[in-house]
Structure formats: structure tokens, C-alpha cells
Amino acid sequence: MEEIERMETVPMESGSKEQLFEKGHPVIRELKRIPEIIFEEQIAMLPSSAIPVKSLFARKQMDHYHVDSLILKKIAMQVLHILRQLSECHIYPGIIDLQDLYVDMNNSQYGVVLLHPEKFQLLTFEQDYEWYPEDERIFGDAVLFDEKMQQIADNRLIYKILVASARGNVKVPPLKTEADYSELFYNILSEEWKQIFERREICSYEKLQQLLEDSIQIEEEFSRMTKESLDEKSEQKKQEKTEKFQTKKEKESEEEQFALFVILRTELDNSKKISKMLYLLQDELELENTLLGHSCQQAFVFGNGAVQVKKFQRYHKDFRCQFPQVIRDYSAGEALIIGTDLLQEKKEELLLKNKGEKQQFYMYILMDGRIKNDQLFQVALTKLKKVREEGVELKLRMVDNIYCEACQKLKDVVEDAQRCC
After folding, report:
1. Confidence of residue 3 (pLDDT cuts 50, 70, 90)
2. pLDDT value at residue 13
3. pTM, whole model, 2 decimals?
4. Considering only CA atoms, which of 93, 102, 83, 90 is closest in space to residue 30?
5. How many Å apart are CA 23 and CA 25, to the nearest integer?
6. 9-27 burial string, b = 16+ CB within 10 Å, else e?
7. Residue 410: is it exposed, middle or buried by C-beta count within 10 angstroms (0-12/13-18/19+)?
8. What average pLDDT does range 329-335 have in this prediction?
9. 6, 5, 97, 80: which is closest to 36 by C-alpha?
């Protein structure tokens, strides 16, 4: 009886999908009432920050957007909202490709829309989908995606999102050989989620929503507590520095500082990590100079084929150096040579002016990956040793623990090497 009512509510007609779309089939009218479902002609209206979920799950994009389990759960919640609306209209799209789900990464709620409803099985009972072995094992015998089969497909879709798998073939649990982060995100799921997926339990939309809401609430509370703890530690550290610099100020006379930043950027299409490291250093220097009453000039060297240089000058308070947009392959040695030359030029210039003020020179070398130990790098090492002997303080800052021959040689030359961010 229920099936008859469904067929009467959304009657089916013969003809191709294209013809039925043109005729304004009742199913299409139902779809157009769901604001999160868009058609091909509407794709140009999406914000530039909207990307396919499948593309987001590539390692490079996950790193770029700093995607964590909380973000994945928020995306899953948005997708579940769309799936529930389709189910309430008795529309069963079959397996939805992650490529057809777009998420707005500039929206704090991570709003999601679903594209290409013409690919749904709803008009011809045909599934337009590139089968993956695991999906085919689960759904291959299905003649029609009815309500029950659609729930199985939707549960699997939520699983793919929670483990951030760009692969339709992802298993439960994900294999260690997966090229994405699926194993990592699976391991940090709660035991309740793991049991549901491992037992292949088919949850109702209501249960999935409740589970996601609870998980999001727990993670947001944990995130809030962590932030408060970090803020407290940061404030304590700031207070300690203030006291330290106050003592130092009483002992020392006013001096002029010259800070050179050499940015050895290797992630050519992602500057987020290394720019964060630079901004933290600039924050630290600004605080120190404010407390000590010192003046400071800063200079920057960016490697990008033809190395870009911003020469020494006094920048306004809160100045944060922006990174060049286009970065090409370059030699780290080239950037270091230009940096040491820039320092020596400034020292000679001050010597000629016969300035009486006390001066201090710093050279910060920032790295976000492995660099080449080529001939230019060997020349740069010699120059670095020379400026160190002339009183320049050399400091190495790395995004992660980087293991390469060139990095080890840099660590041997500098006085201060630390991992940041």
C-alpha cells in the first residue's frame, strides 16, 4: 500500500531523462524545492571557495584547508540534511558520487550542495556511476535503489565522509595502503561509530543525525577547552617574557635590531604553514622590541626562480609580510647567498655612516620541507659561517622535523634550531 502511495505521489513516465527533465517531470519539481540541490546551469553561481568533496579529500587539499575530524562531521551533517530531504520526497538517487557534492570551505558551517540530479536513478532505474569493487560488492546485485537500499548507500556515503576517503573502494576499516588519510580518521572515530560501521548496521537518518550532533558537540567542547588552555599558557608565557625583557631593559642601553628572514619555501602551492611561522616570529619580535624600547628593521628574501627581496626598512606596527603568489622551483642556496649579501651590505652601510648606536643582526631561516644540497648551497654555508663569525645570530625555524643532508648541515652552522607550528 505504501509503495502504491509513493508511485502516486511521484508518478513515473516513459522517455529519456533529457525528455523528462524538459517536460518538468514531478520529480524535478520536487527536487527544485530542495535549495541544496543545484542543476548544471547553476554551477557558475557557486562561490569560488566551493570545491568538490572528492577533491577536498586529496592529501594536498586536506593539508591546505587544515581539515580535522570536526570539519568532517560538520560536512557529514550537511550531506545528511540533503539525504533526509530526498528520502522525505521518496526520491532515491542511488550511490552519490563525492565529486557531485560541493562544500564551501569559507563557510563556518561548511555548507554543502548536490550537483547533477540528472545522474540520479530516479527516472529510468539506471545507475549512472563508475563502479568501484567495494561498492559493487555491496550494491552490485541491486536492481532498484528502493528505500532500504538507499539507506545502505547513504550510510556508506556518511562513512566515506567521516574517514575522508576520496576512494569509492574504501573498506571498513580502511586498508593501510590507502593513499589518503582514511586510516588516520577511522582510528580517531569513537567506538560507537566503529561498531556501527564494522557490524554494517544500517542507521536511520534520525539516529545518524543524533550521533553526528553528539560527536560535534563533544569535539567543539574539547576544542574550546583546548583553546582556553592554550590561551592561558600563551598569556603565562607572555608574562614571563615581559618580566624577562623588563630585567634585560634595565641592564641594556637602547639598540637597533636588523632582522632578515630567508624563506625557503618548498610547498609551492601552499604557503599557509610557512606564513604562519613567519607571522609568529614577527609577533615575537614586535613584543620584544616594544618591551625593550628597541627599534627594528626587517628584510625578506623569497626564493621563486628570480629571488624576490624586500630590503631592510622600518615597517609599521602590526606589519605582516605577504608571500608572493607565484612560486617556482629555485635553489635554497641562491636565497641564502642573497640573504647573507644583504646583511653584509647593511653592515657596511652602517659602518660608513659611523653610527654610534648599538646594533644587533639576526638571520632567520624558515623551512617547510627538504632542500637541495647543491653547489650553491655549499657556497651559502661558507657565507653563513662568515656572517656568524662577524656577530650575526643565525636562527633556523622548521615547520616539521625535516630530515635531509642540507638541513643537517644548516643545523650544524646555526646557533638556534627549532621546530615551529
Report:
1. very low
2. 47
3. 0.54
4. 90
5. 6
6. eeeeeeeebeebbeeebeb
7. buried
8. 76
9. 80
Between 24 and 258, whose confidence is greater?
258
Which whole-number Å values give the CA distances from 208 to 35, 78, 154, in the listed order?
Answer: 21, 12, 10
Distance CA 307, CA 271 (A): 16
CB 160 within 8 A of CB 170: yes
Helix-helix angle 147-162:69-88, to 10 degrees:
170
List the 50-52 sheet strands across, edge first.
50-52, 101-104, 112-114
Q: Give residue 399's Cα distance to chain centre.
A: 14
C-alpha span between 177 and 165 (Å, rounded): 12
pLDDT single digits (tens) 382-400? 999 999 998 888 988 887 7
What pLDDT band is residue 73 in, cutting at 50, 70 and 90? very high
Of 284, 274, 350, give the one whose Cα is nearest residue 312.
350
Site of grid cell 567521516: 162
Task: Report the distance separating Cα 13 and Cα 20, nearest Å.
Answer: 8
**Strand ranges across the sheet with 358-367:** 308-313, 295-302, 255-264, 358-367, 393-398, 416-419
- At residue 65, the pLDDT reads 84
pLDDT digits (tens, 9 = 90+) for 115-129: 877 667 644 444 445
Give bridge partners of residue 264 from the DSSP assignment.
367
> Which structural domains are found in the chain, ordered by start?
2-219 (1.10.510), 252-419 (3.40.50.410)
Mean pLDDT confidence for 334-340: 88
